[in-house]
Each structure stands twice: as structure tokens, then as C-alpha cells.
Amino acid sequence: MKLSTRLTTVTPFLTRLASWKLWIVSAAIFVPFAWMFFASSAPFAIPAVEAACGQAPPDMAFFTSADGVTQFLNDCGPDGRDTYRNMQLADIFYPAIVGVFMASSLSLAIRRLAPRSEWAVWLGALPLASIAFDYLENALAWLAMTSYPDPIATSHLLGLASAAKTTTSWAAGLLLVAALTAIAVQATKTRLHPASTEALVASDSAIEREVVSSAS
């Protein structure tokens, strides 16, 4: 299959991420789950791991060496390792939840700024890459826990997966902030010069309807 054909096949899927219905549903799931995961006293929450192990888990670091992973598991002790295992069970769901929310947010912003561009739609896939790296990181963490106390060679890759996850997620976040800033600037110009922007707004609305209908 040619690359152009593959892109044509995937683009409609990425276009569907720019959906307010998807955004509302994903936001309704993401907000409470993120609070429970990062700020609550739930047994699977990151604060519980920090309390049991005396430090943040490797998942929260930009990079952790293989020796660092082993040292973390040593410092946790049996109870801490059980708590970290609980966190990893919850982390089966979190990457998909945050990834879909970010992908929908970014796709909506990009469609507002560049409704004509099919290539711009692909920027909305950046959070999906973060999902993939996050699940790779989780799989490597499970391998490290399963083999403990014996070290395992795949722990050398855990830090790389963490770095890739953090880089792509931060890139997506910064891109979203930039897109929202551009939208705010456009909205300000529209309020200051309404007569000169009516035609542009009408054209953008027509283009958005055409993009949505072609994707469905």
C-alpha cells in the first residue's frame, strides 16, 4: 500500500478526533481520574507510592537508568512494591484517558485554525504517540517488577520510554497552548474589527462543515 493511500485512510480517523461530543465525554472522564491518580489518597494514587517508597515512581521522572529502577524497587520494600503494582494497574487506563482528551482538544483547536489543511490534522495525533510510549513504559515496569529481585535487561529501555513519553506529551501540551493563544488572538481581532472578519468567519464555517461531512 502506498504511503499516500495510507495517509488518506488514516486522515478521516484523525478528523473525527475534532469532535465536541468526544471532547466532552473524554473531559468528563479525564478530570476526576487525573485527580484520583495524582492528588487523592487512593491506594493506587501516586501520593500513595511516594509515601510507601519515600520517592516518586520512575514513571514521574524524565529518565531513569536500569540501576535506578532496581534501586527504586529496593527502597520500596514489599509494601511499597505492592502499592506500585496497584498504581500500574490503574495506569492501564490513564494513558488512553489523557491521550484521547489531549488528542481531541488539540484536534479541535487545529481545525479551528487550519480547517483547509489535511496535514495539520496530523498534529492531533501527537498525543496518540504519547499513549504508545506510556504503554511501552508500563510494560517495561511490569517486566522489572516481575523479575525482581533479579535485574532484567529491558529496564535499560524504561528510561528511554519515559523520556519519549514526556517529550511527546509536553510537545502536545505546548502545541495546544500555542493553538489556543492563536485562537484567542483571532477572537480579539474579530471583536475589534467585526466588519472585516464576517466574510472570513463565514468561509471558515463552510469549510468546517465540508471537512466534517467528508470525514463521515
Question: Can you walk me through this structure?
Answer:
With 216 residues, the chain is an all-alpha fold. The protein has one domain (13-215). It has 9 helices and no strands. It has helices spanning 3-16, 20-38, 46-53, 66-90, 94-113, 118-121, 126-147, 155-192, 194-215. The radius of gyration is 21 Å and the shape is elongated. The two termini are 23 Å apart.
Biggest sheet features:
none
Structural class of the helix and strand makeup?
Answer: mainly alpha
* Number of helical elements: 9
Q: Tell me the number of structural domains.
A: 1
Radius of gyration: 21 Å
Strand content of the residues, in percent? under 5%
Tally of strands: 0
Tell me which oligomeric state these chains represent.
single chain
- State the end-to-end distance: 23 Å
Helix content: over 70%
Mean pLDDT across all amino acids: 87
> What is the helix/strand order?
HHHHHHHHH
Question: Tell me, what's the shape?
Answer: elongated
Low-confidence stretches: 3-7
